[in-house]
Amino acid sequence: MNKRYYSLNTYFKGIYGRRVRKICIDAGFTCPNRDGKLSQKGCIFCDEKGSGADDISRKLPVWEQVNKYLETKARDNEYYLVYFQPFTNTYANIKILETLYKSVFLDKRIIGLSIGTRPDCLDEDKLMLIAEISGGREVWLELGLQSSNDRTLKRVNRGHNKEDFEKAVVASNKAGIKVCAHIILGLPGETPADYANTADFISSLPVKGLKIHHLYIAKNTEIERLYTGKEISLISKDTYIQEAASFLERTRPDIVIHRLMGDCRKERLVAPEWTLQKSEIVRDINKELAARNSWQGKKTRMAIVPRGTI
Ligand code: SF4
Question: Residue 1's pLDDT is what?
Fold first, then answer.
């Protein structure tokens, strides 16, 4: 079945004519929401081990992590983006960042970077550095929002608000950097009206990419305590499929969909079990759009030129 949303694979194939994969690396960063600058607790869902970095080692220099991947997994007919993923990958001084980011271009198959960070950990110098690296390369800044409801952001201890996110997106766009927004469906207290507001907010900004995640419970998190104490309940698989489809309907059609499910390693996962059925659920979200005779952007509510682009 054809995809009813603008997938990352479609975007990459259209530009490069081939598959582009991500090499996830761990540059050893921490986060101001964990190291005490803002808080020591972190977001209530934050996995202390960091996200996505399953077979990588914080002990290796980043270039060595990339080299290891190139030697063991890379193919000649693919391109790669190096993904600075766990924790806050702009949380260091500019010299350290410059050395780290530039050290990974070891091979012509590495065409760019993805840099995961928080909206309150960017400044003009960092944006200028990222913009300079973007010249002629494929660079994405991955910015966590999670929800556009400030009450929810407070409840999950994000340590920033909706306005911080908007300012970071507008400044990044002005610097010529592509932003991929991250959101979560199923956060405590959120309703379909919150999801709709978040989708409309994202579509009103010069965001170029989107990751939609479901809320899952990882071990040793504050949210695990709330879940085991029955203080919160989780979004069901069927509701998630419905709500993710509805979110896509309100998302601007030019926004590239990087992801439609959260990812948690089996050994770190508490619940829900369907977290491990990723391809099936992504397929079912597309099927849900087909059953509605719908597609990404069908219900986008705002003018197609987002704020901050002109
Ligand atoms: S901003 Fe990211 S790394 Fe920092 S506490 Fe929240 S989820 Fe964890």
Answer: 77
